[in-house]
Amino acid sequence: MRNKSTFKINMPEINLYIILIGIASIALLFYNLYIGCLFFFGFIYIVVHNWRVTNIRKKEWTKYIQNLSLDIDETTKKAIMNLPIPLCILEFDGRISWYNDKFYEMTASAELLGINIDKVVENLNLRKVLNENKEMYTEINYKGRDYSIVYNVIKNEQEKNAKYLMMLYWIDRTEYLQLQQDYYDEKNVIMLIQVDGYDEVLKSADEDKRALISVEVERTLSSLESTSKGALKRTSKDKFILIMDKKELKKLETEKFAILDTIRKIDYGNNLPVTISMGIGIDGDTINENLKLANGALDLALGRGGDQAVIKTTDKFVFYGGKSKAVEKKTKVKSRLIGHALREVILESNQVYIMGHKYPDMDAMGAAVGIYDICKSCNKSANIVLNSANESIEEFVKRLKEADYYKNIFIDKDEAIKSCEKNTLIVVVDTHRPNFTECEELLGLSEKIVVIDHHRRGVEFINDTVLLFHEIYVSSTCEMVTELVQYMEEDVKINKLTAEGLLAGISLDTKNFAFKTGVRTFEAASYLRKVGADTIEVKKLFNSDVKDFLTKAEIIQSTKIINNRICLAYSNSEMENINVVIAQAADELLNIKEVEASFVLGHKHDKVFISARSLGKINVHVLMEKLGGGGHIDIAGAQLKDVSLEEAYNKVHEIIEQYLEEED
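Structure tokens predicted for Cyclic-di-AMP phosphodiesterase:
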């Protein structure tokens, strides 16, 4: 294609021709006057004619443009009038100045012009639109339809003064949102179901009734399959898999998984209740991902004691149930296996660091010293990471430091971090939460971590352990360590003071063998007594002074009884061992008639400690978990940082009220 400049050279404009003719006519005047005059008059005619023609064409072109603009304006008006979506134009004060037929059909109102939009449609924030110099969008439900409103401010300059109007386009998104909701409702949900302690439950019933229990469990779950329109498959004697739509899962959530209570009512003479644990995986990108989420949820449900449903998404957990205590397992095979594995891991390690939770109690310290003796029996040096001893373990720590057997047993946090290597074995006792440990940094430095704990599992968990001994039915971590000592392949010799520390830990968590005590608890205590534990010396570890008694009296005096079932109390005294005192006070409050649970608060420095106790009907673990704590169904606690005692008291009170409302 030739460019524009080339085109101009080849095809000169008409003005250039006129100029050339004028020059030629002037030049002819010098050669021939008559011919020159003739050409000159011809030149004048051409100039006049060209000017006249140009003006005519200009007027015609202007008229054409004007007619075209009028046509466009008319087309625009028709397009707006016949716009397939509702449209209205508002004054800045909200009055309707114009609307199309679709808007009239949408509102079904006879009088619209001059009416304020607020009287027709509520919840329109026009002031926000005026403050924003851009198009805005609002989602609104009007007469059962969902609309997305697009606001557009326009300037009308047809009058002397510029006038601003607001155009509202109403885009009906009802069908789209319904389609989106249908998509979410029909997403697959994977539910893994396991009967808790299936063998133990069957053994607790007469032999001729055991088949009836199994059939009744399957019949109840088949009923769930039918009502949820799902697909149920029994994968083993005590495990099932159920696939359903997300919409049906929402119904189960609304009912708070009533299936848990239905299963619990199965009674064919079985002494142990029939309960199930449910792990549900949803919102994964694939069915396989939902299955992995369901497996993780089931592990968490079992780790929290069973008899509950846990829903797991990619970023959160939701818990339902958890009303029953965990069933004690009579077999000690796992303790033997863990004991053997622990011995092998200790022998393969260069050094061993043992730590419990922050503000350790006798269960944590007794278990730590028990692991220390196991390491000594394996001819491996070990240290217990301890930053400071609180009053609850002060007497025991003092005895350990005075005994030559435990020389240099303790190491502080900084020294442990400095000397920790990848091959260093870290044994965590009496907690499974990383941020609850005495030194969380060690968990990132070592590649060999062992966790021994009996608390119900929370969302936070120490991952990538080489050995995990987590049994929530056990009374205490000291009981677990005692069983490891008993059933390791080679006899482990433990010191008398170690035995007393282990027995003190069991006594503390069972409240002198009153709470969560099973046959194996007494067997462990019997073993410790046999190897030298002195019960009088154990009792001395819990002796308190007069100030503690006065503080407990203050707590009891402040007690508020809620709904004749739950005690809520607090202490204004700031003491170093306030966490121990409030725990003892919480135990005392359970002696009040008809009281089923107690909550006691105390503060120290910038923290508020909460101690919760229950006789079993109220799951205090679930309540304390809402405050970031945890524990067991009947013994739990929490720590709140950077809040006042009054604020913490109000939070606990609110949680108790919510629990009572949900229960009703």
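The chain has five domains: 4-78, 87-176, 186-321, 333-540, 547-663.
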